[in-house]
Design goal:
CATH architecture: Alpha-Beta Barrel
Strand order of the largest sheet: 5-2-1-12-9-8-7-6
Number of domains: 1
CATH topology: TIM Barrel
Radius of gyration: 18 Å
Helix content: 25-40%
Number of helices: 9
Number of strands: 12
CATH superfamily: Divalent-metal-dependent TIM barrel enzymes
Shape: globular
Order of helices and strands: EHEEEHEHEHEHEHHEEEHEH
CATH class: Alpha Beta
Strand content: 15-25%
Distance between the termini: 15 Å
Structural class: alpha/beta
Largest sheet: 8 strands, parallel
Length: 285
């Protein structure tokens, strides 16, 4: 009998639109048993009332799907007096007064518990005017959030995000080394690492011990400084080199499909799932 692959595929239903049902049904069709929840019903998940969260959980339960992660917008914020550029936070405000932030952290951890999500994504403050840019390292709220998450049985994972302060390997490693023993792990977005020119073998190997979740999307440069998103495995992100390195260091990772392919997201997700099943050593379930 073949061994069941230790790695798992994860699908985000909002890639198909605000109604989570089509995305959940696509997950079933593709043989994917895990979901990442980011937004639903046209709102960021952490802003939804408890009864709507219970409804989303029920939709997943009815289909035998598990919520693997809550892709929260925590720390993808700045002070109200700062002026962020164009930032996609899926319906969550970017300018958040410091007095309101602990409330959002508590609400997010509660949402994760309601959804049954053992993992919550966080970011690292938006890069804004230099004099107003805040830093994650030493932020007292991070230590408090890690304490609350540990109490709730939830893991906080930091995503490397180019519009935030911690996107390159050096600050990532600094933050992870400081807070790893308190429960902080890495939500690695390989395409984001590639965007800042650091998706090579040496960097990936240095980050791999901290990786607990992997975002998979792909793109081609459009020749004008922008990007054209394509199905995973069809673009410029060096997954052929990165995935074996990650698997060697962390053989039981969740691989979460993003696409950002707007015209045919279902086809792009199907192609991405097929690619990961062939590209991750040992396969993914």
């Amino acid at each position: 009998m073949d061994e069941t692959p230790a790695s798992t595929l994860v699908l985000n239903p909002d890639e198909l639109g605000p109604d989570p049902v089509p995305g959940m049904d696509l997950a079933l069709k593709l043989g994917i048993g895990h979901l990442e929840i980011r937004s639903a019903e046209g709102a960021n998940t952490v802003t939804l009332p408890a009864e709507r969260l219970r409804h989303i959980r029920a939709l997943a339960d009815e289909r035998g799907l598990q919520v693997a992660a809550l892709a929260s917008p925590l720390w993808k914020w700045c002070r109200p007096e700062a002026r962020p550029g164009r930032v996609d936070t899926f319906g969550f405000p970017t300018q958040v007064p410091p007095s309101e932030r602990l409330g959002w952290i508590e609400r997010t951890i509660e949402a994760a518990a309601t959804l049954g999500a053992p993992i919550v994504r966080i970011f690292s403050h938006l890069r804004v005017e230099p004099e107003l840019t805040e830093q994650l390292l030493g932020d007292p709220l991070l230590a408090k959030a890690l304490e609350l998450a540990d109490r709730a049985g939830v893991r906080l994972l930091l995503e490397n995000e180019p519009v935030c302060t911690v996107a390159h390997a050096e600050p990532l490693l600094e933050v992870l080394r400081q807070y790893h023993e308190q429960g902080l792990g890495l939500w690695l977005d390989v395409a984001n690492l590639h965007e800042v020119g650091q998706a090579g073998a040496e960097v990936v190997t240095s980050l791999a011990p901290y990786v607990e979740y992997v975002h998979v999307k792909d793109y081609e440069p459009d020749g004008e400084g922008g990007r054209t998103f394509v199905p995973a495995g069809e673009g410029s992100v060096p997954y052929g080199e990165v995935l074996p390195l990650l698997h060697a260091a962390r053989p039981a990772l969740p691989y979460a499909l993003e696409t950002h392919v707007r015209d045919t997201p279902a086809d792009a997700l199907a192609a991405g799932a097929a690619f990961l099943r062939s590209a991750v050593p040992g396969g993914v379930a």
